[in-house]
Amino acid sequence: MEAVSACCQQESLVHLLIAAAGSGRRMGADRNKLLLAVHGRPVLAWTLEAAGAAQSIDWIGVIGQPVDQPAMAELFHHAGQPVTWIEGGSTRQESVERGLQALPGDASHVLIHDGARCLVASQVFNCCAEALLEGGAVIAATPVSDTIKRVDAQGVITDTPDRSELWAAQTPQGFSVSELREGHAQARARNWEVTDDASLFERLGWPVRVLDAGPGNIKVTTPFDLTVAAAVLAQR
Question: Which residue from 234, 228, 212, 1 is spatially nearest to 117, judged by alpha carbons?
């Protein structure tokens, strides 16, 4: 995948879907991790603030589970722009597909963002939107700094991939709405299960570029991640 510059000079308007239908299982929490407090506010509140401040975002939809709707709806009032609620499915893949179905009729380009990436900067949304509208799919990512080992089922190292070719995928990920809908339709027809939308394009042989968004756009998944996120937000 070809990397594109993180610098951008002007913003264009796109639609944004925020995936927020997860749980707190890996966090060890009794509720959706996006409702846990980080630096005094729920995780999702920080994500919505960044999205609401991005000049490139014309419309925001949050995909969640019915049990979380009342708590999340309270956060929508402080998002900086109107937010549409979308009921999610049993998997992330199904939830994004429902989000695509709920987009306004004039939506031509969409960014998909994990609500748990609450440290995302507004400028990352803007730069991904610009790269998307310049042509082709794009994802935020960061070059891998660790040496990666491929390991077999017995825990024995089998290979060391070239680190210069490795990137850690993040979100937002941007796509043509029509192409992403086609990708999800193909996944249903072929019983594919993927962990992010870029993987659909990869399986179909459609190109996806990476945009270097830096290492700070972490995903809050574990209690340690909450600690890191709180420290970063406290310094902003």
Answer: 228
Convert 149-166 into a string of H (helix), E (strand) and C (coil): CEECCCCCEEECCCHHHC
Question: What domains sit in the chain, N to C, each tagged with a CATH number?
Answer: 3-235 (3.90.550.10)
**Side chain identity at residue 141, one-letter code:** A
pTM above 0.85, yes or no: yes
Spatial CB neighbours of 20, under 8 Å, sequence gap ≥ 6: 32, 34, 44, 62, 63, 64, 68, 72, 88, 115
Are β-strands 14-19 and 57-64 bridged in parallel, bridged antiparallel, or unpaired?
parallel
Q: H helices then E strands: how many in the chain?
A: 7, 12
DSSP string of 91-125, one letter each residue: SHHHHHHHHHHTS-TT--EEEEEETT-TT--HHHH
| Separation between Cα atoms, residue 231 and residue 236, nearest integer Å | 9
Q: How far apart are the first and last CA of the chain?
A: 32
pLDDT tens for the chain, residues 1 to 236 = 445 544 554 445 899 999 998 766 767 777 899 999 999 999 999 999 999 999 999 999 999 999 999 999 999 988 889 999 999 999 999 999 999 999 999 999 999 999 999 999 999 999 999 999 999 999 999 999 999 999 999 999 999 999 999 999 999 999 999 999 999 999 999 999 998 999 999 999 999 999 999 999 999 999 999 999 999 999 98
Distances (CA, A) of 68 to 78, 86, 99, 102, 233: 17, 11, 16, 18, 24
